[in-house]
Design brief:
The complex is a heterodimer.
Chain A: H1 8-19, H2 43-57, H3 63-68, H4 72-85
Helix pairs in contact in A: 1-2
Chain B: E1 10-19, E2 22-23, H1 25-33, E3 39-41, E4 54-56, H2 77-93, E5 105-110, H3 116-128, H4 138-141, H5 146-155, E6 161-164, H6 170-183, E7 188-195, H7 200-207, E8 237-244, H8 246-251, E9 258-267, H9 278-290, E10 299-301, H10 308-322, E11 328-330, H11 341-357, E12 376-377, E13 391-398, E14 402-409
Parallel strand pairs in B: 5-6, 5-7, 10-11, 10-13, 11-12
Antiparallel strand pairs in B: 1-2, 1-8, 1-9, 3-4, 7-8, 9-14, 13-14
Helix pairs in contact in B: 2-5, 6-11, 9-10
Classes of the chains: A mainly alpha, B alpha/beta.
């Protein structure tokens, strides 16, 4: 089981690979507190991202979890708190 | 609107093509007239252990050039080709969602196999790695209706959405469905079909029909109406057209390439039996729908199965309608392989180009037409008829008994009556 921290760079890489990048959006900019919806990611994109996080980091994120998590910062916090506990 | 249009006709204002003989309408038409073939050894996967090892692949397609990044992880190859051809058709017609009321532009696509390649890959992940490794996009990326959905979302086309699944008849059936929506009041419809399943799962599915040629000769595997006909080869691609209400097209000043003048579909109760007359019924009904007699047809784009008994059945239909050698017949699909749902739409696009330029493209590879067929197949070189080339009949048959026929007519000639309204200052031929 991986115990490394999920960084914003890791997350943008995962988002790009899982769901691509919306035209006109710069994922390399300051996006920590930007809503996923504004970044062009719908619920299915986040579901796929959660699935990749599960495979790569061993973190279980339910559909309800992902509904409550609306920004990259919230997702990083959630994943990293889980990784710290484990 | 010109007075020559059939009742309830839909006009064609844009064409988009993705075919093994060319990506984009210009490249496709040039290659088709030059008699180039897109049949080559299959490269998309290792086909060496399959009975069929040649097919028609769309060469040089770079998905990133046609599909936005957000859609790449969620699209099968067939959807990516659809997005490319759909965008070309819209751009060619100049039509955008803003040109009509919110629900005024619809979409009708045909698909025979959905996103098989995507589906096979994700099923592989399921069994080899586990459920967590299956893409969330598998939920729709494999599905037959996915191209209707993706094109609708991509271009904001919120009018009636349709998907038809009737194998090789599907391309014509989608155009028929589009025309029906236009008759009901939809201003315009993006319509056609693209199929691609050049993957082990897709090829296995097609092999089950028993209609594929067991050959690895790119020039000799698919020889419709030839004495040596022994099946067909698979291909990928197809076409999309913009169909419009004639008044709507005229009001926005669109260039009209021709009209869908007639259409009909039928079903064989016993596709392999002696009463398989469905194709003849479809052709007769399409002609009646267009208000035309067989004499009015100047060229036929055949279904061209390549299976000897099915070729004989189609030739009998042509002789019944037109008499022996009564009309030029061609099957440019011998250069692409059979494209399933893509075939009918591509044939209609090809027919429109043929009528536009006054030239009938050849049926490549065919060397010796079976004289028993008594059909005037255009082989070798393109043919420029000295007489009229204004109206084409397109035929298509789908596995399992589907038949469809569509009559397409070129735009009114410059010799037609002078313009009747200031909004139509004169012929504007491309």
């Amino acid at each position: 089981m991986a115990t490394r921290e999920l960084t914003i760079a890791d997350l943008t890489r995962l988002l790009r690979s899982a769901a691509g990048e919306e035209e006109g959006v710069d994922l390399d900019g300051d996006i920590l507190d930007t809503d996923f919806a504004t970044l062009g990611y719908d619920s299915l994109a986040l579901l796929e991202t959660a699935s990749r996080l599960g495979v790569e980091y061993g973190v279980t994120l339910t559909d309800d979890d992902m509904e409550a998590i609306t920004t990259p910062r919230a997702l990083l916090d959630r994943v990293n708190s889980t990784l710290t506990r484990s | 609107m010109t007075s020559t249009l059939a009742d309830g006709a839909a006009v064609v204002t844009g064409i988009g093509i993705a075919a093994p003989t060319g990506l984009g309408t210009s490249a496709y038409w040039a290659a088709t007239l030059a008699g180039e073939s897109g049949i080559r050894p299959i490269t998309r996967f290792d086909a060496t252990r399959y009975p069929v090892r040649v097919g028609g692949e769309v060469d040089g397609f770079v998905a990133e050039q046609h599909v936005p990044s957000r859609l790449l992880p969620q699209t099968d190859h067939s959807t990516r080709l659809s997005l490319a051809a759909g965008a070309e058709a819209l751009a060619a017609s100049g039509l955008t969602a803003q040109d009509a009321p919110e629900f005024g532009i619809g979409i009708a696509t045909a698909s025979s196999m959905g996103g098989f390649e995507f589906g096979q890959r994700e099923l592989g992940h399921l069994w080899a790695l586990g459920a967590q490794h299956v893409s969330a996009y598998q939920s729709f990326a494999w599905f037959y209706a996915v191209n209707t959905g993706q094109l609708s979302i991509r271009h904001g086309l919120r009018g009636p959405g349709t998907t038809v699944v009737s194998d090789q008849a599907g391309g014509l059936d989608a155009l028929g469905a589009a025309r029906r929506q236009i008759r009901k009041g939809t201003a315009a419809v993006l319509a056609g079909g693209v199929d691609s399943a050049l993957c082990p799962l897709g090829l296995a599915g097609q092999l089950s029909t028993g209609e594929l040629a067991a050959s690895d000769d790119p020039r000799g595997a698919y020889l419709p109406f030839d004495r040596a006909a022994a099946g067909h080869v698979p291909g990928e691609g197809g076409a999309f057209l913009i169909l419009e209400d004639p008044a709507f097209a005229q009001a926005r000043g669109a260039t009209v390439h021709g009209e869908i003048a007639g259409y009909a579909s039928t079903f064989d109760l016993f596709p392999d039996g002696p009463d398989a007359d469905g194709l003849l019924r479809a052709a007769r009904q399409a002609l009646a729908d267009a208000g035309l007699a067989p004499f009015d047809i100047d060229v036929v784009f055949g279904d061209a199965s390549g299976r000897p008994d099915a070729d004989r059945a189609e030739a009998a239909v042509l002789v019944a309608l037109f008499g022996p050698n009564g009309v030029p017949v061609t099957a440019p699909k011998s250069a692409t392989g059979r494209l399933c749902a893509g075939a009918g739409a591509l044939d209609v696009a090809t027919a429109l180009l043929s009528l536009r330029d006054g030239v009938i493209p050849p049926t490549v590879h065919v060397r010796e037409v079976d004289p028993g067929h008594q059909i005037d197949l255009v082989v070798g070189e393109p043919r420029r008829p000295t007489g009229r080339l204004r109206t084409a009949l397109v035929l298509a048959r789908g596995h399992g008994g589907f038949n469809a026929a569509l009559v397409v007519r070129g735009p009114a000639t410059t010799a037609a009556a002078p313009p009747t309204s200031p909004a139509n200052p004169g012929p504007s031929r491309p």
